[in-house]
Amino acid sequence: MKIFLSIFIAILFITCKQDLSIPKKLTDSIQSIKNQYAPDKRTAIFNITAMATRAGIILKGETAIPKAKTELLLALQGLNIIDSIEVWPSKDLGSELYGVISVPVANMRSSPAHSSELANQVLCGTVIRLFKLKGGWVYAQTPDDYLGWIDVEAVHPLDSNRLSEWLAKPKAFIVQDQSYIVDQPLTTANVISPLSAGAIVIDNGSNGDQFNKVSLADGRNGYIKSDHIVPLKLWQAQESKQQDAVSILNTARGYLGRPYLWGGTSANAMDCSGFTKMVFLRHDLILPRDASQQVKVGLPIETDTSFANLQPGDFLFFGRKATDSLPEKITHVAMYLGNGKIIHSTGHVRIQSIKRGDSTFAENRFKTFVRATRPLASPKEHGIFGTEDIKWFD
């Protein structure tokens, strides 16, 4: 009897264990769909996990790509699937699925806490998509698709109708390195908000020779010096003609000495890719956020340790070259000035050399060089677009 009971318990244990396993078909399907629709978690949402229970296999997590969820469920037909996948935007947002940044620079963090890693910064006037509220934070996506958590106090939420109204209003682009909205058209007036180059405001027209009336998304009104702004459409037209290496490198040199800030993308402080991104934005060219993303746009350039093929304005990427056991890893980006000189943000924005014998030779960069691209060679043909190509900048 004891032997029979032991065998029965063993069979029951094995059966339960088999029932609670995750089929390889399921894990392979999740990975395949993720590779297709969300290969980069920084720019697409597809976070799905599976848990086996006696009632069935529970799929849980979230995605902002309904088609990806549909294809996953179709691929898993025949399995006992319990669908607990949430499709974002979350219902807790109601109809307010968009927002406009209403502070000078909004910090975007990797998790919803001020102590979390600073991943990105978003300039005033930028339209963002909203996906999820958590406490005092909102998970959002910028026009270049970057994802992260922003303090809700920095965002003016909009539904689709109010978004259309915002987009239809005349805008101005801040071209001054640092500017201020003030409460009166006087140089001695009180400050309503500081602004950095690259910010966008509603342009309500000139107020005499020195000031323009402007508004922020949250309804605050004030005045800004007229020579600190350019109407957005005019700025786009002007900068489309200034997308050459000489102009862009002159802008880059204007940031010399600015401090390095991990996650920084404003004129106040910036990391390596934040620096290149800000410089190109000043010329109406939108780069991806991180160096490992920027390396995927622009025309690839064949190079060797002589760097003979490089031209001013080219991007140099540093990190780890691919090996038999490890993939390529890009961790840094710099702009080429010519004659072995590079300009980049490392400690602060500075000029160094990758040419042995130069007084500013940076051996660590020379040793970790991976590859180069030419972002100014037909930018749109190689994944670099302007603000006029993004509807949220209209």
Search tags:
alpha+beta, seven-stranded antiparallel β-sheet
Describe the structure.
The protein is of the alpha+beta class and 394 residues long. Strands 6-5-9-8-7-4-10 form a 7-stranded antiparallel sheet. Strands 18-23-19-20-21-22 form a 6-stranded antiparallel sheet. A 5-stranded antiparallel sheet has the order 16-15-14-11-17. β2, α3 and β3 form a beta-alpha-beta unit. α2 packs antiparallel against α3 and α6 packs across α7. It starts with a helix and ends in a 20-residue tail after the last strand. About 3% of the residues have low confidence.
Count of helical segments?
A: 9
* Shape descriptor: flat
Give the class from helix and strand content and strand pairing.
alpha+beta
Given as residue ranges, the uncertain stretches (5+ residues, pLDDT < 50) are 7-18
What is the mean predicted local confidence, pLDDT? 94
Number of strands: 23
Radius of gyration, rounded? Answer: 26 Å
Beta fraction of the residues?
A: 25-35%
Q: Order of strands side by side in the largest beta sheet?
A: 6-5-9-8-7-4-10
Helix share, percent: 10-25%
Q: Biggest sheet, open or closed, and with what strands and sense?
A: 7 strands, antiparallel
Summarize the structure.
The chain has nine helices and 23 strands.
Strands, helices and their partners?
Layout: H1 2-19, H2 24-37, E1 46-53, E2 56-63, H3 66-75, E3 81-87, E4 98-101, E5 105-109, E6 118-123, E7 127-134, E8 137-141, E9 147-151, E10 155-158, H4 160-168, E11 171-174, E12 178-182, E13 191-196, E14 200-206, E15 211-215, E16 221-225, E17 229-231, H5 232-239, H6 245-253, H7 272-281, H8 291-294, E18 299-301, E19 315-320, E20 329-338, E21 341-346, E22 348-353, H9 363-368, E23 369-374
Parallel strand pairs: 2-3
Antiparallel strand pairs: 1-2, 4-7, 4-10, 5-6, 5-9, 7-8, 8-9, 11-14, 11-17, 12-13, 14-15, 15-16, 18-23, 19-20, 19-23, 20-21, 21-22
